[in-house]
Design a protein that fits this description.
- By secondary structure, the chain is an alpha+beta fold.
- Helix content is 38%, strand content 18%.
- The chain has helices at 2-22, 37-70, 73-76, 89-117, 241-253, 266-274, 311-319, 321-324, 339-350; strands at 135-142, 145-150, 155-158, 160-164, 168-175, 180-184, 188-193, 199-204, 217-221, 233-239, 302-303, 307-308.
- Strands 3-2-1-5-8 form a five-stranded mixed beta sheet. A five-stranded mixed beta sheet has the order 4-10-9-6-7. A two-stranded antiparallel ribbon has the order 11-12.
- Helix 2 packs antiparallel against helix 4, helix 6 crosses helix 9 (339-350) and helix 7 (311-319) packs across helix 9.
- It is elongated, with a radius of gyration of 28 Å.
Amino acid sequence: MMKGLKKWRLFSLLAALTVFLAGCGQEELSTLLPAGQVGKDQFKLLMLSSGIMLLVILVVVIIYVVAIVRFRRSKLGEDFVPEQVEGSHTLELVWTVIPVLLVLLLAVPTVYYTYKLGDVSAMHEVNEDGQSESLVVDVTAKLYWWEFEYPTLGIVTAQELVVPTGEKVYFNLLAADVKHSFWIPAIGGKLDTNVENVNKFYLTFDKESQDLKDGVFYGKCAELCGPSHALMDFKVKTLAPAEFDKWVTAMQATGEESTDVAAAGQGEVLFQQSCIACHAVSAVGESGAIGPNLASFGDRNRVAGFMDHTQEKVVEWLSDTQKQKPGNLMPSFGEKLSDEELNAIAEYLMGLSVEK
């Protein structure tokens, strides 16, 4: 008796916990709080399929309970035999037609939204000057970071995707090494990035991210890709169109800067000696660099995609990259540079900003 009561207590506790967890969710990360039309469309499909499943479960449970209560042995006796309905055309018709209708109810909107969300024909449209009328971003997934190129704007960034609100943004998805998957839970999507073929789709961003807890939406790699898969995050900063244009202008201006060797500080000199072969500090150019573009490093939300954005964390990352993110391709500098030199590089990187 006591064992049964303990089981019911545990069940009640889990049920109550489920209710409380149902109210949890981070706006910048939750698929249940969509902030874009694609996410809203996918949320509708989620609710429709969940409703159909709940209806089926409810009907089955009701039939099960009725059968147990109405036809229990203590009520009808040991020798009672219920009416046999084997071969009933009516029942066979019911349990054939109803599932077909439920499948159609789910299949029709699913097919509709699949084709709707897969329609990227507008990304190839150009105006009278031959320029693209839509914003296109080439996404390249790498172990374990993300590169974002804006081919029509002539700029490249990494780890932080910046997009305008209120318009469709088209994406070309590609992987540089192994299969990854591009996903912004609060916005929608989740599409594989493959090594050999390019996947295309679009997203819309309805809300500016500045009011969110961390000032960004969170993006994820949704395909197991190696020991640091869980740390392969990127951030999405959504801006009003006018603010986005300012950001683009500032990013393009980084290509006009030239290094004055005489005026360069210790951190910049050390960067030129140790890091420039893999990392660019100008956003102007094309994708394909060995390491992430650092032109707007000081504006980022995280270091290496997951560490707090502080100078101390930059030093930790530079000192031992494999300890922080196992399997990544960046060498560690803890044994090659002194603490003073590492701090100088970190200070220089934190000063790389286009928003200040």
